[in-house]
Write a structure and sequence with these properties.
Two copies of one chain form a homodimer.
Chain A lengths: L2 E6 L1 H4 L7 H11 L6 E5 L3 H12 L4 E5 L10 H8 L4 E3 L1 H13 L13 E3 L3 E3 L8 E6 L2 E6 L3 H19 L6 E9 L4 H8 L10 E7 L2 E10 L2 H19 L3 E4 L4 H11 L4 E5 L5 H6 L9 E6 L3 H8 L3 H7 L4 H15 L3 E7 L14 E7 L4 E7 L4 H21 L10
Parallel strand pairs in A: 1-2, 1-3, 3-8, 13-14, 13-15
Antiparallel strand pairs in A: 4-5, 6-7, 7-8, 9-11, 9-12, 10-11, 15-16, 16-17
Helix pairs in contact in A: 3-4, 9-14
């Protein structure tokens, strides 16, 4: 089956915003075994939208359009679709009430304009937006399927699997194959090296599509299998997955929707271990990531963003002499930070980061990107040095990844035995 | 003038590669004052390319196509363009020699296929590629201009200003305009409300294009003006900008490439004030954002992620009774956290956040999304309550935005006089 993609918005064709929706949707459709013959972007303009739909549906059985469903004057997609196919709009009172409800519950001013977010072309089926007020809709016209979604990427990522995929599978049952897919998330390894290590597995040769998606600081390897039956698909996927894990084991930190912070949180919770974190160069990013996990209060006792040397000394008990002699960015300081924050928080584990995020502050012996990460459990303390070659934000992200990876390996291997691996 | 963009390649329509060429070219064209009515991506396929060119040139005087100029079998763009307009190919021997020269210089072995990189449709003008072997070309057909470039972004960024812009300006001399644009970043207000408040300014009516770009937790209002002269453009933009600022002043936190954290950092540095931050529900996100700014160590003394009640009591001196009586999520606790972390860090200012990020932990009186943000300067402490309606991550982001906004207003208004505003 062929499905075209139309992304709508002046921010796209003016180049102000990089369109990420089209490639996300294209990838999801490909995973289902459906082709995307064309992707198009046009302005929030009725005529432009109508022309685009006509051209795309000349080459595809369905089109997924995104953008222009908001309450403002430049949101014209719904009206454009209705006019293009001579349809009236109807107002869905039930949805209108839901939207009003959201506004009332959170004390937001209701603007009359918001009403139009409950208007849909007659004959269309609304698609629920679980994270916003702009609902989408699906419409059958002239034997073709038109699906319209809002333009916000995070909303599309929720609506596509929950609302769009079911409609497509229902409308085109014959083209729905059994698809099995597994995303394997790695870090601390280059894309080229992953590719090389997988070469001898000959996955493609056995009908396993392998996609590489660098997603800083991760590399995502996506295995996709399409078969007549779910059982066949799952069986082939399983063997392929095992081969990948064999070859890349220690770089894998999560599968599918799992995250590194989620895996660490699950392990800490399961093992009933508590954690305190002392951050210098990451500036709170490590605890920010951990607290994205609901329930993190069970294991995260506290964090200390010890940006100044005084804070390292006062809160973590790192002696001034240590900092003077070895520097705030040193193995000695990193170890004492981990041990110090563990004591401060009365926790089982202490995790620390210190480094030079840049762009300034580098030196001959310690260039920008020099980072130390340490983990203390009261018996032992492990520390590892890194040299990251990226700009400030990426150094912070890579450092938080290294720290959480060290912690994950410690938890997964049940102790500092993980040391050799770290 | 209207210029369409066509990006060619299976990696694009399969979603394997994020297309960045289209938005780069669109941005460059807009800066020149030229509109991009349509952007399209299709497969490396002769028919698809021909159809796409035909559709785009139906709506534009020119098209810039990228991709498919390489030596391999799936590089079909040149042939597709020639066939589409019934043109023969000619081989440019001078260019062929240049390409061969590059191969020899770098000791690459020459494969016969490379010859085709010196083939161009008859009547076309080659466009030099200063960093690669795939030259582009410009072709006038049926009163329209077709420009073809390779697909490598780094090569396009060299070829566009050097090779493409001159051809466009020469071909359409009458259409070169001056463009002035301003991005105004707001938060704490809904898109619909921004739209309503700007309604009476009648910007569009006076030739000022207004775009709304929700960019959680911000809303970006982009004003664009095109005039014959730079002076006219700047003048109109200035008056338009003043009108927007008048109507939305207190919600504006930055312009163009400025960020909220960057503005706060600049104000703290300029006023030589130091800051300590106590975070509960934001889990370190506030200090993470502040430490994204190079030089933040000048004003950020430390942060305390007091996730447990014990940490709030031990580090910040929030009495157990206060937490027991009013709760960890309360105005009383938020105020004491801000005052406590200020003392802890010996700083001029103390900033705090406490709230229920959800999805669990909500109650009748304090539903999920209930957040308190406080700021202490040693003389006074201000606190504000919020109720955010989003999921966990967005509650954290919105809370960090509210806290940094409170701090920014305090710094901008020179004291707690900002209180009324907050």
């Amino acid at each position: 089956m062929r499905v075209g993609i139309l992304t709508i918005g002046n921010e796209l064709i003016s180049g102000r915003t990089q369109d990420t929706n089209a490639s996300y949707i294209a990838r999801e459709l490909n995973i289902q075994g459906w082709q995307v013959p064309i992707m198009m972007s046009v302005d929030d303009d009725e005529t432009a939208i109508a022309k685009a739909l006509d051209h795309i549906l000349g080459q595809a059985q369905a089109v997924i359009a995104t953008g222009g469903l908001g309450p403002t004057a430049d949101d014209k997609t719904t009206v454009a679709v209705a006019r293009a196919y001579g349809l009236k709009l109807y107002r869905d009172e039930a949805i209108l009430l839901k939207i009003r409800g959201i506004f009332e519950r959170y004390g937001l001013n209701w603007i009359p304009n918001n009403d139009k977010q409950a208007d849909f072309p007659e004959g269309s089926e609304p698609i629920v937006n679980p994270v916003g007020t702009a609902w989408g809709f699906a419409l059958n016209v002239q034997g073709k399927l038109i699906i319209v979604l809002p333009g916000v990427p995070s909303e599309i990522k929720r609506m596509f699997p929950q609302g769009v995929l079911p409609v497509l599978r229902r409308t085109f049952p014959e083209s729905a194959q059994a698809v099995a897919t597994r995303t394997i998330k790695l870090s601390g390894i280059s894309e080229a090296e992953v590719d090389q290590r997988l070469a001898d597995a000959d996955l493609e040769g056995r009908g396993v599509a392998v996609g590489f998606y660098p997603h800083f600081p991760e590399i995502r390897v996506v295995l996709t299998v399409r078969k007549a039956s779910e059982t066949e698909a799952q069986a082939l996927l399983k063997t392929a997955e095992e081969q990948v894990i064999q070859r890349l084991d220690r770089h894998i930190f999560a599968l599918d929707d799992e995250t590194l912070e989620g895996t660490v949180a699950a392990l800490l919770t399961e093992k009933k271990l508590t954690l305190a974190v002392a951050e210098s160069c990451t500036g709170g990013l490590i605890t920010d990531r951990l607290t994205d996990i609901s329930g993190s209060s069970v294991f995260l006792e506290r964090g200390a963003v010890t940006y100044s040397n005084l804070a390292k000394t006062e809160l973590l008990g790192v002696p001034e002499e240590t900092i003077r002699e070895f520097g705030a960015v040193s193995e000695q300081t990193a170890r004492l930070m981990a041990e110090g924050v563990r004591k401060l928080g009365h926790t089982d584990l202490g995790l620390s980061s210190t480094g030079i995020a840049g762009p300034t502050g580098g030196s001959e012996q310690k260039p920008v990107g020099t980072v130390f990460v340490a983990l203390a459990d009261g018996k032992e303390t492990i520390c590892r040095k890194y040299l990251f070659r990226w700009e400030r934000r990426r150094v912070k992200i890579a450092t938080s990844q290294a720290a959480l990876t060290m912690l994950k390996r410690y938890l997964a291997t049940g102790g500092m035995s993980g040391k050799q691996q770290v």
